[in-house]
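Please predict the structure of the following assembly.
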Amino acid sequence: MIDAYLDDLGRELGAVGIRGRLRRRILAEAEDHLRSGPEALERFGSAQLVANRFAAELGARASRRAAVGAFAALAFAGAVYAVAFVGASFAGVPDPDTFPVAAVLAFAAIVLAPQVAFVAGALALVRTLRRREQELPSAELRVINRRTGVALASGLVTMGALALFANELRSELAGWWVASTLTGAAVASVLLVLASVPAGRAAVLRPQVAGAAGDLFDDLGLPRIDPWRFAGLVALGVGLLVWIAGAIQGDPLDAAVRAAAEALACLSGFAVLGRYLGLRG
Amino acid sequence: MKGHVDLLLLAALRREPLHGYAIVEHVREASHGALGLAEGTVYPALHRLERTGLLASSWLTANGRRRRVYELTARGRAKLASEQSDWKTFSRAVEAVLA
């Protein structure tokens, strides 16, 4: 009976994502417990219940740590990005019409990916700061893990695109900018990959804890309106900011085109990732 | 009961290091059978208390069997004292209302 129970428990632990040394320790402790008294097996609880309790205890903590670690790595990547962006003004960036195709694609990724990384990473952090319970519903963990994963992936795309851009235009850009950008992107990429290890560990834990995940309005503490209306307002606000910044620089028409593109990108991001990242129900 | 498991586990380890089964037995006997912990779910809580530094644990071999023994850390003792004080305040307040 005890051996059969331990086999069950081992399977259930694997099913909720607990493997390796921790699984061996849990099984060893369970075996000792079950062999300690005649009624121990009856009172121990089902293998599924015990495995799920372990996963529930570990899941919230693992997701929280992964989100914080990802945000820290993204903060460094953000600093690399900002230095590269400011430094580019002094590095002699050629006319975009002369960019090779790879540089054009890299430039598009440099503009879009960091916005996705920032929004997803910040929202993962906000969710973990808002939900500080020992256990979280499975749906909440899924949202946090997805946000963390998307943030890290977008951060890596940004750093890769930045490195590609610097490499493609290395003969035309100042050597110091190319060198510092390639070095910064490489270091940031290493940090992002390191941060993806705990994120991967958190994602394999699959406790079954009842409860719904909140949405963007819960995260931001805003009154609930139609999510698409909210996305439209955000896109409008972002577009306005881009237009004002461009108009101040003296080219309102070009600024309007960029503002429209930025607003459209916001809405597209919401359409593509909104449900996946728990921004809308 | 669920909200008080941590306090019960810390209190059970106040006098000496114990393994999981002995902790459950201690709580049952000390409460004259009134508090029966769900035995399998004690271990996730013990692991969490260890991760947060309130408990330490190590393997011992007794009668040819390996068992994990838990003990309070200094932080665990401080936490227990604070939780006990909170609990006494709470129970005195409830008793005063019920009296």
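Strands of chain B lie at 18-19, 55-62, 65-72. The first strand of chain B starts at residue 18 and ends at 19.
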